[in-house]
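Worked problem 6 (solution included).
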Amino acid sequence: MVRLFLVLLLICFSVALFPQQALQKVANHNLIYVDDPDSSNDVISATTFTFPFKDKTIRLSFLFGQLTSLGTPHEGIDIQAPAGAQVLASADADSYSFVDNGAKSYGKQLILSHSNGAYRSVYAHLNGLNDKIFTEVSKPDFKPGTFIKKKIYKGDYIGNVGCTGLCDGAHLHFEIRALDSKSGAYTAVNPKPLLSN
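Solution. The predicted structure is:
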């Protein structure tokens, strides 16, 4: 217990002393800040994402890079919205996947793959899916985490806001992840500056 307290104290102290980019090193996460001159965001910055709701006045409740209750940086943005509100695809997608972590982490999450896998958008804590997507991911041969090659267009209704997984109220956790061509891993990118009207 004392060790955990000291680790959290060290993280908080480090965040207070160092700029936002230092948070990456402190928490051992590879987050990309769009305004970071050392980041390679060519694919991402050439793409236009839209806000995943029709109502653009909905409030952000938790920002990218903020420390979570677990002491790790938040890898997306949380958007407060009423339970059941329609969530829209933020960019054209060539395939999608669905994972239901139950009461853990993101709960029900839909992941869209864009530009042949160059980046992904994540929509988490969902309470429901659009009927076509639900039909596909409910098939007995569907394996969670595998991608279904079906087109989804920017602005298409894809699911509904909920509070599945670890959450304390209805909201959408929204992420954009960029593919690192060298390692093959996806890295969270700050989505806020990438969202257009």
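Discussion: Residues 32 and 38 are 9 Å apart (CA to CA).
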